[in-house]
């Protein structure tokens, strides 16, 4: 915004008015993530480890000590499914990729294998265990197995028919996708499915989702797409963003841009109304020595801001006012996962249930501010350039989610009407809402923390 008090008058064209509306929506602060009613978040419960507690203990821990209200399994392990009986936690279970071809049916009736799968993996547990969704395979298109891919949508239809025939009408069916399904994604407005799969696979799949009112599930991972230049963009931290000339929107975090790229691809096929859910996303807390962007602070920045975003009503520029069913990867650090060190450090919790870091998911606890218990405020450095101050205002008051109404014309903090004053208020509002970690006040080295309350008169800093 050109000035805090002149946002709406400065934007006059239809495209810019849409952008203005989006930014105004983002002037409303994100909901606090310390209240149970404000949190709805899921986790991926993997078991690629030799030190994890029994499933019954895991289910009891999640129910009694966390705000996590949904869990995604990578299989249909009966011990895990049974463990969640009576907890109220909703469960996504998964059909292995190897079973997909046998489940498929050429007719509207379920295949015998689909009926048998429901009888074995759903009927014994539901409704005591709240099975809310069955995922047919995992990232099937990434396998490049033509036979498997050809059977995917018929298997989804067949399994849905089998669930309906068994009376389980509330259980949804979907399949998670990596973002490799897109051939183009930046800027988001040019998002498009891979040629050859768009009409043959995704059009019938999206038609299935529309008819059954089930979500199209994607696994966006900014972690796998960042560079040194785009690290802050990936971590929800202040940055200059990626401008989309077709929509006039400047995207300042990669996760939102990835969701909108998926939506653009869906809309291109005529299915922009289909719901999107996030099956996996996360950030590791440890990696190789000296690995850029992999630390506890980085994991906190990504996951805390992710939780805040998906629990807000802000949506995205292309999907305003939407909330996205989301599953963080992962519940535990899994010590047997192969590959780089980071692969074994995506967990929110250690195997003994201690938190790897705090993002406000434990009942009775709020995220602890980094760097001590004393109250601190974030203000702009006096020698910061006018351009940097304006960029900080634009970020904090835009996708940063800060409440900047007090620095609009007529607001309690509008005067003094200077970039330094307005930026200090906006930067502090962002810092307080984002969890009060030191890195939340960095702003490209133009912010500084102070123990002196900068409030003045009727202008009260949070």
UniProtKB/TrEMBL annotation:
InterPro entries: GH, Glyco_hydro_17, Glyco_hydro_17_plant, X8
Xref: SUPFAM superfamilies: (Trans)glycosidases (SSF51445)
PANTHER family in alphabetical order: GLUCAN ENDO-1,3-BETA-GLUCOSIDASE BG1-RELATED-RELATED
Protein name per Swiss-Prot or TrEMBL: glucan endo-1,3-beta-D-glucosidase
EC number, UniProt record: 3.2.1.39
GO molecular function: glucan endo-1,3-beta-D-glucosidase activity
One GO cellular component, as annotated: plasma membrane
Gene3D superfamilies on file: 1.20.58.1040, Glycosidases (3.20.20.80)
Enzyme category, top tier: hydrolase
Highest taxon of source: Eukaryota
Family from the record: Belongs to the glycosyl hydrolase 17 family.
GO terms for biological process, alphabetical: carbohydrate metabolic process
Membrane is among the record's keywords: no
Keyword line: Disulfide bond, Glycosidase, Hydrolase, Secreted, Signal
Domain named X8: residues: 376-461
Localization, UniProt: Secreted
Organism encoding this protein: Musa acuminata subsp. malaccensis
Catalysed transformations (reactions): Hydrolysis of (1->3)-beta-D-glucosidic linkages in (1->3)-beta-D-glucans
Pfam families for the chain: Glyco_hydro_17, X8
């Amino acid at each position: 915004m050109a000035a805090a008090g002149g946002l709406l008058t400065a934007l006059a064209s239809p495209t810019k008015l849409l952008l203005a509306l989006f930014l105004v929506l983002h002037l409303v602060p994100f909901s606090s993530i310390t209240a149970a009613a404000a949190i709805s978040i899921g986790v991926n419960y993997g078991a690629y480890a030799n030190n994890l507690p029994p499933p019954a203990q895991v289910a009891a821990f999640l129910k009694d000590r966390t705000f996590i209200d949904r869990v995604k399994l990578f299989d249909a392990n009966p011990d895990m499914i049974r463990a969640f009986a009576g907890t109220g936690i909703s469960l996504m279970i998964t059909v292995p990729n190897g079973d997909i071809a046998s489940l498929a049916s050429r007719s509207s009736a379920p295949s015998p294998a689909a009926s048998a799968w429901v009888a074995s993996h759903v009927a014994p547990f539901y409704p005591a265990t709240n099975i809310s969704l069955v995922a047919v395979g995992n990232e099937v298109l990434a396998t490049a197995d033509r036979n498997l891919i050809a059977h995917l949508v018929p298997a989804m239809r067949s399994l849905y028919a089998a669930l309906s025939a068994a009376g389980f009408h509330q259980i949804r069916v979907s399949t998670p996708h990596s973002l490799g399904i897109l051939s183009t994604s930046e800027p988001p407005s040019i998002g498009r499915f891979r040629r050859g799969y768009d009409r043959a696979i995704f059009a019938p799949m999206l038609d299935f989702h529309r008819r059954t009112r089930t979500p199209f599930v994607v696994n966006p991972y900014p972690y796998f797409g960042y560079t040194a230049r785009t690290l802050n963009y990936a971590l929800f931290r202040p940055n200059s963003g990626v401008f989309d000339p077709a929509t006039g929107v400047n995207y300042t975090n990669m996760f939102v841009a990835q969701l909108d790229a998926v939506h653009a691809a869906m809309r291109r096929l005529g299915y922009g109304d289909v719901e999107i859910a996030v099956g996996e996303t996360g950030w590791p807390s440890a990696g190789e020595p000296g690995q850029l962007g992999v630390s506890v602070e980085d994991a906190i920045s990504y996951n805390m801001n992710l939780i805040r975003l998906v629990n807000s009503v802000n949506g995205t520029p292309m999907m305003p006012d939407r909330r996205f069913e989301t599953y963080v990867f992962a519940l535990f650090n899994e010590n047997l996962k192969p590959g780089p060190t980071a692969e074994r450090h995506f967990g929110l919790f250690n195997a003994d249930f201690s938190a790897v870091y705090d993002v406000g998911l434990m009942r009775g606890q709020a995220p602890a501010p980094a760097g001590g218990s004393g109250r601190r405020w974030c203000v702009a450095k006096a020698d910061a350039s006018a351009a940097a101050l304006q960029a900080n205002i634009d970020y904090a008051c835009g996708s940063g989610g800060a409440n900047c109404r007090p620095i609009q014309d007529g607001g309690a903090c509008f005067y003094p009407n200077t970039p330094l004053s307005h930026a200090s208020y906006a930067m502090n509002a962002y810092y307080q809402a984002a969890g009060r970690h030191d890195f939340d006040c960095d702003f490209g080295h133009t912010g500084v923390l102070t123990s002196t309350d900068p409030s003045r008169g009727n202008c009260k800093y949070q």
